[in-house]
Structure formats: C-alpha cells, structure tokens
Amino acid sequence: MQTAKIAVAQFCGGPSVSMNLSTCTRLMRMASSQGAKLVFFPEASDFIGNPPEEALTLVSPINDSTKEVDGEFLKGICKEAKELGIGCSIGVHEQSPFKDRLYNTHVLINAQGEITSTYRKIHLFDVDIANGPRLMESSNTVAGDRIVPPVSTPIGKIGLGICYDLRFPEMALALRKQGAEVLTYPSAFTIKTGEAHWEVLLRSRAIETQCYVVAAAQVGRHSEKRVSYGHAMIVDPWGVVCARCGDGEDIAVAEVNQSTLERIRSEMPVLGHRRDDIFS
C-alpha cells in the first residue's frame, strides 16, 4: 500500500483495567471512523498507577509461540480490532517467570484480531530526577533481552520500542538496518523529561533512521505520585511533525506515504554512508 492512514492516541490511564479497556475501544472506533488502518496506543494502556502488589495480580502471560492471551484487556482489544478490521499497537503489562516482577510489553495486533508480535522493554527507566519523581522501573519489571525484527503490516514494516527505548539511537538504527519503515514508541513520559526532550528525541530518531516515528502517550494525572506529559505525535522521515494530539484524551491522524519514505532515503542515502568499518 503506497499510502495509508494511521492514528496515534493519548489518554489518562488509571488503575481500572475495565475502564481503560472501555477508553481504548472507544478510541479505536474513532480512529476507524476516520479511515485509519492501524491505531497506536500508549505504554501501560491496561493499567497504571497501581501499587506493585496489586499490579502483579492483574497480569497474564502471552504465549511466545502461539501468541495466545489470557486476560480481560488484551482479549477485549483483539475482539474490537477484529470487529472493526483495524490493526493495533499497544503497551501492556505481562506476566513474567518471576513472582515479584512483570514485563513491560508492546503488542502488535492485526486487523483479524491476532497478535503478530510482542516486544519486552529492554531499557528500564531507573532515574531520580531533581525536583521530579524517583522512578525505579527495575524494582517491579523484568528487562527484555532482545529487540524484535520489524513486522510487515499494511502500513509498512514496523519496529517496536517502548518509551525509554527512545533515548537509545543504537536500537532505532538496528531496527532500520533490519528493514523498519515505521518506528513506534508507546510511552508515559514524565512532565519534566517530556518538556525538555520528548519532541526532540522523536524527531531525531525519525531523521537519523529516515523512518516514520509514531509515539502514543499517556497524559495527565494517574495517581497522587504519577503524572504523564502527553503530546502524542506522528513524525515523518524528514523529521516533520505531521500530526499531534491536543490536551487530554485525543487521537491524531496522518498518512504514511511509502513514496515519500523511499524518496527521502534515495535522495540522502545515509544508511549506505555509515562507516561501520570504523564504528559499529
């Protein structure tokens, strides 16, 4: 497909799985009504802000070989995707082999409601921000151990990342070298880091990889201690922001144009100019 519409979503998730599912399915219907072939949702779309001990009771495993799921949230998203005939990228929590920690997982679902790929976040957000939050993701999350090859979809080959992965250009370049045409980062950026770095990082990843970059985002106050920046957006391979969400719950729609991507890569073939003989 040379040109296809996509939608990026943002909303303020909370501790209730059923309420977050209702929000996501409503936004899926909005995206579908605007002609989107695939809708992108934030990190932790299933729940956010819950105490760690409660979070561990809400997660389900995803079978790596069969991609079968057990759990209200993903089953509901897959069902809605099939009914609408729309693909979906979404961040969720997943049961891990460790009793005290879980995975932060990015799931890609096709228009038939089938899970086609899962990626577990490899870079965990362990930071103590001056005049900001102290967040130690590794205290309740298991890091993934690999990047996932880009997945062929009706909008192009999608490379999967999650939030903090955005800060690591090596990962984005590795996905580009494997054929990625769209990079996606479902996120929940803090206010302080979002104001300083969010758009700059997204546009940088787009420019250096010559990929579309799609970043859905959590927005607003989830709990007493946690607030997310929002500003979900779609960036084209030239680094131009071609769609962005407003304040609060929202979706934004833009076109992914294969000929635009090919032209940019042809006119400025930076991947072929990389001196991998000197650095890798």
Q: Which descriptors apply to this entry?
A:
7 helices; Nit1/2_C-N_Hydrolase; 17 strands; 28% helix; 280 residues; globular; hydrolase activity; C-N_Hydrolase; alpha/beta; Nitrilase/N-carbamoyl-D-aminoacid amidohydrolase
Describe the fold and architecture:
Keywords: Hydrolase. This is Carbon-nitrogen hydrolase. Pfam families: CN_hydrolase. This protein has 280 residues and is an alpha/beta fold. The protein has one domain (3-272): Carbon-nitrogen hydrolase (Nitrilase/N-carbamoyl-D-aminoacid amidohydrolase, 4-Layer Sandwich). The chain contains 7 helices and 17 strands. Strands 1, 2, 3, 4, 5, 8, 13, 14 and 17 form a 9-stranded mixed sheet that branches. The chain has a 6-stranded mixed sheet with strand order 9-10-11-12-15-16, covered by helices on one side. It has a two-stranded antiparallel sheet with strand order 6-7. Strand 4 (102-109) and strand 5 form a beta hairpin. Helix 1 packs parallel to helix 3. It starts with a strand and ends in a 7-residue tail after the last helix. The mean pLDDT is 95.
List the SSEs and their pairings.
Elements (H helix, E strand, L loop, with lengths): L2 E9 L5 H17 L4 E3 L11 H7 L13 H13 L2 E9 L6 E8 L5 E6 L5 E3 L5 E3 L4 E2 L8 E3 L2 E5 L8 H9 L4 E3 L6 H19 L2 E4 L1 E5 L5 E3 L3 E3 L5 E4 L5 E8 H10 L2 H4 L7
Parallel strand pairs: 1-2, 1-13, 2-3, 4-8, 10-11, 11-12
Antiparallel strand pairs: 1-17, 3-4, 4-5, 6-7, 9-10, 12-15, 13-14, 15-16
Helix pairs in contact: 1-3
Keywords: Hydrolase
Protein name: Carbon-nitrogen hydrolase
Organism: Linnemannia gamsii
